[in-house]
Amino acid sequence: MIEIKNLHKGFGGEEILKGIDYVFETGKTNLVIGQSGSGKSVLLKCMLGLFKPEEGTIEYDGTAYSSFTDEEQRELRKEVGMLFQGGALFDSMTVEENVMFPLRMFTKQRKRELKTRVAEVLKRVNLDGNENKYPAEISGGMQKRVAIARAIVNKPKYLFCDEPNSGLDPTTATIIDKLIQELTRENNITTVIITHDMNSVLEIGENIAFLKDGVLAWKGDKSQIFKTEDKTVTDFVYSSDLFKKVRDAQLKGY
Ligand SMILES: Nc1ncnc2c1ncn2[C@@H]1O[C@H](COP(=O)(O)OP(=O)(O)OP(=O)(O)O)[C@@H](O)[C@H]1O
């Protein structure tokens, strides 16, 4: 669980995050949504320790990040998996080398153990047999699965995903969403997903935090988001055609 309390962050006198309180639950896909510029990435960077908040705390399973020593921060980093926007694979490394990268960085395992663990995760994301290919030789959806394998290879307790679906067709996007949700459940990970994708909200919105102008404007789950009368949320959500159709169908009792 990651708990955020009264989080404030600004730049050059402009306040971007204006006192956010939220709990990201373990074993669930916690989605952060909101318009461009609402502060989602700033929130993510505060949680990753890349930005230091002016006020407030971020607690990882009950311990505030700010109270960690340098050594404890390093330990925490080992427990964090990161799925970057666009995958961010190393083009000059094979699939196997890409997935092995965090293991090499954070563990002192022998080559054979590293290979065994990499094979295990590649099998889990249905990519066994692709070890020796380069990112350019596989599809966008496969690249995303390599990136997921790399994010979970170290058995993280916390998984951060920045727009995991960007650049994918809707079917592949759903497969990726479901995979992230399954891995979150199987491994009891606290997963935080920044997304613009309303399909993801529909599919895996177990917890949804809606940010507007640096404020947590609404929170709930995928069933509640259709029922809310909160105009701030409905304006955002029904700017998506898909959601409008789902809402209409619900109102008609389908
Ligand atoms: N390093 C920085 N220095 C100054 N201002 C910043 C910095 N990072 C973000 N901001 C500002 O904070 C605000 C929120 O940006 P942020 O990137 O968090 O939005 P977002 O919700 O993630 O948007 P998007 O969906 O487009 O990625 C913006 O006005 C942005 O210009």
Descriptive overview:
Keywords: ATP-binding, Nucleotide-binding, Transport. Residues 2-238 form the ABC transporter domain. GO terms for molecular function: ATP binding; ATP hydrolysis activity. This is ATP-binding cassette domain-containing protein. The structure is a single chain. This protein is of the alpha/beta class and 254 residues long. It has one domain: 3-Layer(aba) Sandwich (Rossmann fold). It contains 10 helices and 10 strands. The strands form 2 sheets. The protein has a 6-stranded mixed beta sheet with strand order 6-7-8-3-9-10. Helix 3 (95-106) packs across helix 4 (111-124), helix 3 (95-106) runs parallel beside helix 5 (140-152) and helix 6 (170-186) packs parallel to helix 7. The protein is globular. The two termini are 36 Å apart. The mean pLDDT is 90.
Strand order of the largest sheet: 6-7-8-3-9-10
What would CATH call the class?
Alpha Beta
User: What are the distinct ligands in this entry?
Assistant: adenosine-5'-triphosphate
Question: What is the H level of CATH, i.e. the homologous superfamily?
Answer: P-loop containing nucleotide triphosphate hydrolases
**Unreliable residue stretches:** none
* Strand residue content: 15-25%
The rounded Rg comes to 19 Å
| Gap between N and C termini | 36 Å
- Number of E strands: 10
Structure classification:
alpha/beta
* Molecular shape: globular
What is the string of SSEs from the N terminus onward? EEEHEEHEHHHEHEHEEHHH
GO molecular function, one term: ATP hydrolysis activity
Pfam families: ABC_tran (PF00005)
InterPro entries: AAA+_ATPase, ABC_transporter-like_ATP-bd, ABC_transporter-like_CS, P-loop_NTPase
Protein name: ATP-binding cassette domain-containing protein
